[in-house]
User: Fold this.
Amino acid sequence: MNLLTKIRNYINRKVLKTPGVKFLQQNSDKNMRKKHINFWLNRARKKKNFQKYFFQEVNNQKNQITFKNESENYKLSQKMLDSLSNNGLLIIEDALPEFERNQIIEYFDELKNNNKFEKKWLKKPYNPNFYKEVSEMLGITSIKNFEFLNSYSKQLSKEIYGKIVEPTVELRYLKYDKDCEEEKVRGATYLHTDRFLPHVKVYYTPFEITMNTAPLEYVLSSHKINDDYLNFYYETKNFDETDRLFNKFKFEKKVVCVPKNSLYVAFTNGFHKRTQFKNNDERSLVFLQYVERFNKIDYLI
Ligand SMILES: [Fe+2]
Assistant:
């Protein structure tokens, strides 16, 4: 990576990134928090595409959540997008052609073996040491290495952010070695939110995800920005299920167990968690996120 790219990445990551929860963690005064949240959410409200996905009320009709890429056209249909808007969650099975799934597996093989790294990583993969009980290898690469995943990413970002946004691409390999259930971890295996501003995560798994391999659990429709949502953020201390106002969210929960080669999309300004590992097992998951490249400037202009 050349110096200019390094500097640009640093500024994107540290200065311009979409505001997270740091301000709220540092300020307990409710009026200050209200001002901060309302300022940024009013900017978000002005974005036409955010209106549909984050501000428009949920319609109570039950929407299909899981779709198959049956025609192999790798295109998102209006039905899929409407479901995403309503539920905050969309699952696409048979998502990628087999050759691209195999390419991604080769990346995970390097993370799993943890000895030589010859794939197109942007920097050397490492263990972020977030978990005590689970070992993790995190590798970061460019979306340009995966043609069809990139095509989904372009369609989704155009639809949600109103323009094509290049995502950060993280490949996370988790390995759990114990023969009893993993302990709960704040910010991961508690139901929590990532940020108060609209936030989307796209996940791709080359392998089946079962109840034993730490699936995502999502509180359907909890991404919609309404009075309950605002009140929760004005008061929250932990940004998770242990906060008093979490009880206001009486929505259905969905555990995302999926067959191999599935892609799913979740709005993680709504409540979600990684389910705890039950027993020794492993999970390989690709994460796409947009908050570095769709950033403060996009909100302010
Ligand atoms: Fe999260």
The CA atoms of residues 35 and 62 lie 35 Å apart. Residues 30-45 form the longest helix (16 residues). The chain has one domain: 3-300. The pocket of fe (ii) ion is lined by residues 192, 194, 268, 272 (CB under 6 Å).
